[in-house]
Design brief:
The chain is an alpha+beta fold and 75 residues long. The chain has five helices and three strands; from the N terminus they run H-H-E-E-H-H-E-H. It has helices at 2-7, 9-15, 36-45, 47-58, 70-74, and strands at 20-24, 28-33, 64-69. The longest helix has 12 residues, at 47-58. It is globular and about 30 Å long. The protein starts with a helix and ends with a helix.
């Protein structure tokens, strides 16, 4: 996978394995992080690369991609 090649397996394991896929469609992807810290870190450091990777995998241009937090959705 491109992210593993670019960022390394340990980083992907630490930051992306805990994410849940909420929605995955040709033009929309929503991922859910277990907490606000992880959501914010991923948005700051991996958002662009994640979007590129999903565009490659889905073969389309994403109109919407977002990372939510399980904690924020429970409040």
């Amino acid at each position: 996978m491109r992210l593993c090649e670019k960022s390394g397996y340990e980083m992907v394991k630490q930051w992306l394995y805990p994410l849940n896929i909420i929605t995955i469609k040709a033009i929309e992807v929503e991922l859910q992080a277990p907490d606000l810290f992880m959501r914010d870190w991923i948005q700051k450091n991996l958002r662009i690369e994640l979007k590129r990777t999903f565009q490659e995998l889905l073969g389309s241009s994403l109109e919407q991609s977002r990372i939510t937090s399980k904690i924020a959705s429970e409040i």
